[in-house]
Amino acid sequence: MSLHVPTELLERAERGAVEDAEFVACVRESLPYAWQVISDVVADLETGNAEFADNTTPPPSESERGQLLRALASDAIRGGLERHFGVKLAFQNCHRVAVFRPVAVDGDEYRDFVSVRGQLLNQSPELRDC
Question: Pick from 39, 49, 58, 80: CA 20 to 30 A from residue 102's CA?
């Protein structure tokens, strides 16, 4: 799953730095499912007082799963999304995306979520081939 980079944006990138806002807009247009999942989880976080919020709903198709994997596997995309939304993203399996408040990154819930133990406890037979 690649980004669909408009010619103008590609030309600007060839000449030098690109603004975060332009890059994030490209991500939003190229990976709409991933954008929606992350936007929804950020909205959930903003409505409460919890240190994090997460999505546990599997993507409806392999195409959507690919979008989510692309968004979270790329350091540049993940970093752009984190800066845009003002959160720290964490990812388990093929669909479990969590957003943490930046102040929570040093906390127990974040450390538990990104730990080896947390990863193992989030496994199940139906997710092995996702």
Answer: 58
pTM for the model: 0.86
Q: What angle do CA 113, 119, 122 make, to 5 degrees?
A: 95
Strand blocks (E) in the chain: 52-55, 88-92, 96-100
Residues 6+ apart with CB under 8 A from 7: none
CA 54 to chain centre: 11
| Residue 97 CB-density burial (10 A; 0-12 exposed, 13-18 middle, 19+ buried) | buried
End-to-end CA distance of the chain: 16
- What pLDDT, in 10s, does the model give residues 24-42? 999 999 999 999 999 999 9
